[in-house]
Amino acid sequence: MKKNVLNFVKTRWYVLLILIVGGGFYLNQQKITQAKKEKETTYVVDRQDIKESLSLAGEIQADEHVVLRFQTSGRLSWVGVKEGDLVKKYQTIASLDQREVRKNLQKKLLTYAQTRNSFDQVGDDNQRIGDQPTNDWNWGDKMKRLLENAQYGLNSSVLDVELTNLSIEYSNLYTPIDGIVIRVDSKYAGVNITAAQAEFEIINPKTLYFSFTADQTEITKLSEGMRGTLNMDSFPDQTKEGALYYVSYTPKSGETGTVYEGRIRIPPDTASRYRLGMTGDVSFTLSEKRNVVVILDKFIKSEGDKKYVWRKKNGNQEKVYIKIGLETDGLVEILSGVETGDVIVASL
Q1: Quick one: 282 and 160 in the same domain?
Q2: Would you call 180 exposed, middle or buried from its count of C-beta atoms within 10 A (0-12, 13-18, 19+)?
Q3: Among 82, 117, 200, 224, which one is most buried in terms of CB atoms within 10 A?
């Protein structure tokens, strides 16, 4: 019998080795699993820094952002910009063909000159009221009406000249802001356009801001001047701080639900890195406390308006009522009831 066992060990030693290694691995896994379970169901009270923060999503927008178009249809005679060009405030960027309106202006000026001569002639042909050599006072009323009609005709001629001059001004397109041209619908002169076809879009990169929305429970926690940390999706490894300079008083239109807009200014020295419509998040620190007693919120139970935990002491579990302070994601400040080093269990 002993010989058979020895022969088996000699010839099948690797089987025993596998059994020993497998058994050791199994026992080790059991210990690890038990330790994890114990760790998940118990918590040692300690001191940590704790802060309450609010994170909100948004995108890059610009305060100075315009879409320009002509008031009337016409033939596009000149385009002075292309996408990416820098423009100055009140710079002319495009023009319509002005030949027709300039001819109309000349015609109106001639009509004005003719009307002016007629007006002066009517004044010379009619004496002042009271100087007429007749006892018929109706003549004075007739002369007054002749002079008034002449004045009305002159005023109408002046208005015609001014309106035609406005048409010339409207045939030129000016930018009301400094900035960069980001869109040109009609790039080439010589084409006929309608008022809606030839659009020019310009933004001022120095006025970029991060626009976010907050619901009615979140907006009350924010105020102008608060500092926020920006984390843009385009630069996930970089953060930038900015000040909240605008909080709307009315809900933002076009949104589902009642939400309000907030704005954080983008620093001018970094504005060139960002583009309109880039998305990201901004985080605000609402409150912060350092080196306070905390426990995980999952260990806290409720009993009416009271809070309590189960504390492990001398191998037993006891119910301890606690008073809580600041609450954040996952952590709760403990003002009284437990101390550092106490072991809290999830439940009985």
Answers
A1: no
A2: middle
A3: 200
Tally of CB atoms within 10 A around 325? 15
pTM reported for the whole predicted model: 0.62
In a structure prediction context, what are the per-residue pLDDT tens digits for the chain, which is 348 residues long?
545 555 555 555 555 556 665 656 656 555 555 544 444 478 888 888 888 889 999 999 999 999 998 887 778 888 889 999 999 999 988 888 766 666 665 666 666 666 666 666 666 666 555 555 555 555 556 666 666 666 666 676 667 666 666 666 777 888 999 999 999 988 888 888 787 778 899 999 889 999 999 999 899 989 999 999 999 998 888 888 889 999 999 988 877 788 999 999 887 777 678 888 999 999 998 888 888 888 888 888 888 888 888 888 877 888 888 888 888 878 888 888 888 888 888 765
Structure-derived torsion over alpha carbons of residues 210, 214, 220, 224, reported in degrees to the nearest 10: 10
The CATH number of residue 303's host domain is 2.40.420.20
CATH number of residue 240's parent domain: 2.40.30.170
Same domain, 124 and 237: no
Clarify whether residues 235 and 282 are in a common domain: yes
Of the candidates 241, 257, 288, which is a domain's last residue? 288
Which residue is listed with tokens 């009993």? 303
Question: What is the Cα–Cα distance from 295 to 345, expressed in whole angstroms?
Answer: 11
Q: Are the beta carbons of 147 and 122 closer than 8 angstroms?
A: yes
Residue 37: inside a domain, yes or no?
A: no
One domain, residues 329 and 219: no
Does residue 72 share a domain with residue 197?
A: yes
**Sign of the C-alpha dihedral, residues 311, 313, 315, 316?**
negative
What are the distances in angstroms from CA 86 to CA 60, 143, 325? Answer: 20, 62, 54
Residue 151 forms part of a structural domain: yes
Nearest to 81 by CA among 190, 177, 170, 186: 186
What total number of domains does the chain contain? 3
